[in-house]
Amino acid sequence: MPRIETDICVIGGGSGGLSVAAGAVQMGARVVLIEAGEMGGDCLNAGCVPSKALIAAAKHAQAMRSGAGFGIAPVEPEIDFSAVKDHVFRVIETIAPIDSQERFEKLGVTVLRDWARFTSPEEVQVGETTIRARRFVIATGSRPALPPIPGIDSVTAHTNETIFALREKPEHLVIIGGGPIGMEMAQAHQRLGCRVTVIAGKALPKDDPETAAIVLARLRAEGVEIIEGVHAASVAPGLSVTLDDGRQVTGSHLLVAAGRKVALDRLNLEAAGVAFTDKGVTVGDDLRSTNRRVYAVGDAAGGMQFTHVAGYHAGVVIRSIVFGLPSKAKTAHIPWTTYTEPELAQVGLTEAQAREAHGDRLTVLRQPFHDNDRAQTEDQTEGLLKLMVVGGRPVGVSIVGAHAGELIGLWALAISARIKLSALTGAVLPYPTLNEVSKRAAGAYFSPKLFDNPMVKHVVRLIQRFLP
User: Which residue range or ranges hold the Pyridine nucleotide-disulphide oxidoreductase dimerisation domain (predicted)?
Assistant: First the structure.
């Protein structure tokens, strides 16, 4: 039976695992990477990449309907749904070589394409091969979870793993789940000519309610039916969904976007002495498990389920297992974005969380997109930036509006590096740009202190009297 001795064994070829493998091998470590499914994981093949490609196609369709304000006659687009999916898969195929087995083997990584199973605290079995490693990194990600709704097995229930392969346009897409995936897919399919109904206990529940309400209002205005405060009680053949208040929704296709389950079931973690729950591997701030040889990153670590978090975790783990340096993961500076139109982005604390944590020390500032000149030229004035400040430093930012996912990056840096608002107000930005929304929000913190302060006015009058 073949045996491999290595420094680092990475289980999972998604964002986190690939980042660990690439970083470690290029710095001289011996690395084995194990992936039974598609290289690139969920993000490349069934998540971030295809969803954003579909959303981009939907934006082009919507632009054709909404040109009247610019003097361009609106028209109803002719949509070839199958060709839209061709675009989606072309994007995947273009990016795939970056995550491919061939690229990683050229870097020096030993890549094994099969399932991994721990046989001891120091070894895993992959097919006929036994791998003994100094350190293991579990990066197996997660997969969509189907809720235990009676009758759901009697119909075709699409998830993010199957919806992008659907080449026939749904006449009426019913979506169970009101999180980011559900709302992104709802707007995209509505814009691509489908009728869409969303069933959600609460839509966009993890975001700031004030900013989320703007997104939901836009979706409803575009024709998406969002039914909140209810849950699916049962599903019957013919795709009839009965709600727990007795109402029925009948559609042609069903998409379930009601959470995800961490993929750990094949690993035999008990043999490795690795503690875990249904939320993921039990790890400390250093992402180390109860077995000192084993770490977990990304969704497998049981925290925030974002691709960029997995990449961040990879950097934390590399410092520990490659250089032997203490390193801990934090969450306060982690941003996230829902790629609806308008986009919805968050970093740090929401207003409610900030009020609970800081009480009267908190200052909340609002800067509307309507006051931004670039937003006016683009007719993208819907939205606002909410800035939560304590002691002159941002502790949270909520943005809803055009390119909110791009704008949130500045605030992620500010919170991560503990940058004061005075530094942001001193930055010179090109005009006209949307980022002036951020600068004006920061400046608004100081405006009352400068412009509404009698002492400042008194001092200025004195200075003016004595200036030559």
Answer: 334-441
pLDDT digits (tens, 9 = 90+) for 338-356: 999 999 999 999 999 999 9
Give 393's contacts (C-beta < 8 A, 6+ positions apart).
Answer: 414, 418, 419, 420, 421
What is the model's pLDDT at position 450? 60
Beta pairing, strands 260-262 & 253-256: unpaired
Count of C-beta atoms within a 10 Å radius of residue 382: 18
CA distance 344 to 70: 25
Four-point Cα dihedral 273, 279, 282, 285, nearest 10: 160
Mean pLDDT of 156-160: 97
Distance CA 6, CA 133 (A): 5
- Boundaries of every domain in the chain: 3-39+100-144+261-321, 152-258, 335-451
Q: What is the CATH number of domain 335-451?
A: 3.30.390.30
**pTM for the predicted model, two decimal places:** 0.95
CATH superfamily of 3-39+100-144+261-321: FAD/NAD(P)-binding domain (3.50.50.60)
Mean pLDDT of the chain, nearest integer:
96
Matching CATH number, 152-258, of 3.30.70.260, 3.90.1150.10, 3.20.110.20, 3.50.50.60:
3.50.50.60
Rounded-to-integer distance, Cα 1 and Cα 214, Å: 60
Rounded Cα distance between 313 and 287, Å, is: 8
Binding residues: 52, 140-142, 177-184, 259, 299
Q: Which residues are annotated as a binding site for NAD(+)?
A: 177-184, 259
Residues flagged as binding site for FAD? 52, 140-142, 299
Find tokens 């974005």 and name the residue. Answer: 337
- What is the per-residue pLDDT across 425-458, written as a single tens digit (0 to 9) for each? 999 999 999 999 999 999 999 877 766 777 767 6
DSSP letters for 289-330: -SSTTEEE-GGGGTS---HHHHHHHHHHHHHHHTT-------
- Say what percent of the chain tops pLDDT 90: 95
Look at residue 255 and tell me whether its pLDDT is greater than 90: yes
Tell me whether the CATH fold assigned to 152-258 matches the one assigned to 335-451: no
* pLDDT score for 451: 62
**What is the DSSP annotation of 346-376?**
EEE--HHHHHHHHGGGEEEEEEEGGG-HHHH
In this predicted structure, the answer to whether residue 305 has a pLDDT above a threshold of 70 is: yes
Question: What letter would DSSP give residue 98?
Answer: G
Instruction: Return d(Cα 82, Cα 331) in angstroms, integer.
Output: 40
Burial 386-396 (b: 16+ CB within 10 A, else e): bbbbbeeebbb
Residue 265 region by backbone torsions, left for phi larger than 0, else alpha for psi between -120 and 50, else beta: alpha
